[in-house]
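Archive entry: two folds, one per protein. Generate the first.
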Amino acid sequence: MMNISFENIDIIGNVINENELYKHYHYPEMLSRYSSNFIEFKIMPTLNELLEAEQFMRDFHLKNGQYHVEFVFPQDKEIAVELIEHLNNQDYSIEKNELYVINPSEFPEVKVDKDICVEKVDSVRLMEYLRIQYELDLQYGENFANEKQDLMKRNYNNENVIQIIAYYKDMPAGAVDVILTEEFAEIDNLFVLESLQRKGIGSILQKFVMDTYKDRKVILVADGDDTPREMYQRQNYQYLGFQYEVLKVYNE
């Protein structure tokens, strides 16, 4: 298999500074999106290097009215004990993300359900897609939900981002975005409304992606501590590696 890594995963954000230690991502169009405004370490930092980057990010974000610090560590590297101790003492959340790939032909067959319909988002379905996303994003605050709406409108006009919506008994039930490159179709933002989960909607959304992009490998990132990763493993996705990210949110 070709060499696939987290570098193949799309990042919404701009590299505004890069040195031997890290890349600094910033996305002024959506300052509230943590995973668009962060530092990605190219090599594992020492404690002093982490402290310096932490102070830099804190100062930089405060100037922009941002109240978080997020770091992403190198792929397949465990975080040193002294760094873990500092992160825990400073109340960072620590997440382990996992990278998966599948050839579309290896995805299991999915039982057809006449109550479930999946369509690409077009001008007719855009408002339903935006509305269901807004309802989901409100849990992260109204400002985030509104900024996310603008992002999704930009994506609608981006030929490399395909937005897909699922209906259950003609009502919007879930959605997924597919980010296209020459070699890959990346599954992103896959969700099903909580009240409609366990009906096979998520699998049917994925199957739609597999059938539509048979000529590409399908990749995605899963939360290493969450249950969807178990679903992906059952669906024949191949595990490729892990990456830690840490986040601290400050009181405004």
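Generate the second and append.
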Amino acid sequence: MHGARYSLSIGVISTLLSVLSGGILGLVAGLSPRAVDEVLSRALDVLSAFPEVLLALLFIAFTEPGTPSLIMAIALAFAPRYGRIVRAQTLLVRRSGYVEQAVTFGLSRTRLVWRHILPNVLGPLPILATIGLGSAIVNASALSFLGMGPQPPSPEWGAMLSESRNYLRVAWWAAILPGATLTITVISLTAVGRRLQRRFEGRR
């Protein structure tokens, strides 16, 4: 229960930061001229080509292990995922009929973005963030298992697994319980996210 405070906090904060930073980059890329869009989209593609854990490891390698570095590393690793989604959604909404009609009515660019583009672009993000939260928690626990997250005696699930692996024969529950809790949490978050996705898409 104490470990949930660390693992869930790291997952939630890093997911929020990755959604915010990736969403801003994707929105800017989708609304910018072609040259700027090409530069930003290629940068997102390059970052997306690397495994998320590898990007997080590279970031922590230039900083020091700990909770703040782990949060920033996970946020950096997951930001390209949301950036590409927001960019694609922005381009789709930007070329839609109701946006073109609003342009013909002389609506200013600022009002066009706030009233027509943003609400339709950001709609799927909470659902995707719910699904991605489980991945963020798993990656954070994996990095903590390697000693790059919260340091002992912080009861983070990955750190608890790392500390207890040498005592499986005499105290197996010290490793099984954090691992089982981590697994159940990730499965539950993924199931909730998939359910929300089906409801958003109009499926039951």
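Annotation attached to the second fold: The mean pLDDT is 83. The longest helix spans residues 2-31.
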